[in-house]
Amino acid sequence: MSTIDATVQTPLGGPTLPQERRVVTAIPGPRSQELLNRKAAAVPTGVGHTVPIAAVAAGGGVVVDADGNSFIDLGAGIAVTTVGNAHPKVVAAVQAQVAQFTHTCFMIAPYEGYVAVAEKLNELTPGDHEKRTALFNSGAEAVENAIKIARKFTGRQAVVAFDHGYHGRTNLTMALTAKAMPYKSGFGPFAPEVYRAPASYPFRDGLTGPAAAAKTISMIEKQIGAENTAAVIIEPIQGEGGFIVPAEGYLETVVAWCRENGIVFIADEVQTGFARTGAWFASEIFGIVPDLVTTAKGIAGGLPLAGVTGRADIMNASHGGGLGGTYGGNPIACAAALATIEAYEEEDMAARAREIGEIITSRFAALAASDARIGDIRGHGAMIGIEFVDENGAPNAALTGAIAKQAMSEGVIVLTCGTYGNVIRFLPPLSIDNALLNDGLDVVAAALAAN
Ligand SMILES: *Cc1c(COP(=O)(O)O)cnc(C)c1O
């Protein structure tokens, strides 16, 4: 299918793919359509896709399909290939490890890669207290384990999640997730002792951080009781729910209240972690130190790995053998994570994320001056959301979908999100160059003007 030589790599990662937008067929082209037909016959409809293509290569800032179309990647596989697709350091580390050993099961025969990733996460996550890290395979699995750990430590059962929250698709994480369609509808019953509190959504609730926190805290005190609450879990910047940045003072107030009440505060940094927001972790932006942090997505350049990192006393409260999993902290994924983290450090990718954020934000701020449908521009670093509204300020999901669809047909991958489906989320790989980024934004701006 592919004629791409994946053995030659650019310094930015990936095979030497021309860093260009190139649409040479209708989308999908014939070869992509062939694969999509096979997909429809082999894979259930529940597993959807955003872009109707057969991907064959990716690197720098592009994804190339089987028909030779080259798409500008503004989604990074949902904030996963933050370091760049097939980054040369990651490729080399994976190749070396896969030839050494592929699996022993860390619970059977431990190995250094796992311990080294744990040491790195203990060092990089917010706070200089003593920490421990346990590794898993997916964001949802990390979240499930963070809840297990918090319940064991506190001896309490209730867990508080938030409006607009997203934490995964397993049973417990569906219960934690706010949105019915497409994540929960018809998939219940859900795990018990999960409660939903109001969050801070400055564009829609107009509340200051302390005022929004007072609502959150009052709900927990009245409906659950602090003494029954094991954990509060929140994304410091809500991802799937709409790239919602809480008002200043919100998270600080909730964290302080949790601390006073012996409640474990869990920051779900699965989407916001690893240089994405221009900091190692978004918690740093708000000056909070979570008790536990869950990580995944950007951790290992695309290989499946996830972590729970946090206070040693909380992490160590689980009995021996109580935590783990067959594949958790797989040696190849750990090798990829160590190479990825090294690349973030050496290439100062957090600074690059801030530059990318500047470019996107200033571009949309200029457009917003003459287009009232741009209701809000928000985010940090290379995690920027644009919320679209109609003339009454109501969510404009139709426009959002139309923009994404047109951009896709013109060779740009853009993702949408939001409780109301009216947010375009920009999550480019940090290896994208400015020319490509600007070309991608031109296409999105033209799609906005045309719809
Ligand atoms: C994606 C995501 C998850 C779930 O991660 P999976 O690897 O898909 O299980 C959990 N929390 C947040 C904040 C996420 O963005």
TrEMBL record:
Read off the Gene3D superfamilies from this record.
Aspartate Aminotransferase, domain 1 (3.90.1150.10), Type I PLP-dependent aspartate aminotransferase-like (Major domain) (3.40.640.10)
Q: Which residues form a coiled coil?
A: none
Picking any one GO biological process from the record gives:
gamma-aminobutyric acid metabolic process
Keywords (A to Z) from UniProt: Aminotransferase, Pyridoxal phosphate, Transferase
Q: Catalysed reaction per UniProt?
A: (S)-3-amino-2-methylpropanoate + 2-oxoglutarate = 2-methyl-3-oxopropanoate + L-glutamate; 4-aminobutanoate + 2-oxoglutarate = succinate semialdehyde + L-glutamate
Sample GO molecular function, one term: 4-aminobutyrate:2-oxoglutarate transaminase activity
Q: What is its EC number?
A: 2.6.1.19, 2.6.1.22
Pathway, per record? Amino-acid degradation; 4-aminobutanoate degradation
Task: Determine the domain of life of the protein's source.
Answer: Bacteria
Signal peptide positions are: none
Q: So which cofactors does this thing need?
A: pyridoxal 5'-phosphate
Q: Which PROSITE patterns match?
A: AA_TRANSFER_CLASS_3
NCBIfam families annotated for this entry?
A: GABAtrnsam, PRK06058.1
**Homology family:** Belongs to the class-III pyridoxal-phosphate-dependent aminotransferase family.
Q: What protein name is recorded for this chain?
A: (S)-3-amino-2-methylpropionate transaminase
Which species does the entry assign this protein to?
A: Microbacterium mitrae
